[in-house]
Amino acid sequence: MFVYVAGYILLVFLVWMAPASGQRKDSGLAGLVVATVASGLIIATVVDGARLQRRMGGVERQIFLQSTSLAFFVTVLGAVAYALFEVFLDAPKLSMWLLWSWGMAAWGIGSAVIAKRAT
Questions:
Q1: pTM for the structure as a whole
Q2: Looking at residue 19, what is its pLDDT?
Q3: Residue pLDDT, tens place only, 76-85
Q4: CA distance 107 to 25
Q5: Of 78, 45, 50, whose CA–CA distance to 64 is shortest?
Q6: Which of 70, 80, 92, 117 has CB 3.0 to 4.6 Å from 110, enough for a Cys bridge?
Q7: Using H for helix, E for strand and C for coil, what is the string for 60-104?
């Protein structure tokens, strides 16, 4: 899992340091390759982490399963609620980074709260 995370961070850092960093109108094949590799690395990290957690037993596994379920529903409900504002009130479209951050925050906070209650 560490190798995936290190590769992902290195790739993002290298792209960020590139002279043309920022908004990319047409990054062509290089952009496709970087996005594909970075996506693959982060997906592998999450899958590997989930597999590791599922092998665990006891309280740690319960905390992981409960916080993951909580984060899923918070993310889905937040997404559908905001989608309704986009449709009916012409609210601005949100970046997928915001949706990802919302889900990760829900998972992190949920894990902390559930772990605190378990002890």
A1: 0.68
A2: 60
A3: 999 999 999 9
A4: 33
A5: 50
A6: 70
A7: HHHHHHHHHHHHHHHHHHHHHHHHHHHHHHCCCCCCHHHHHHHHH
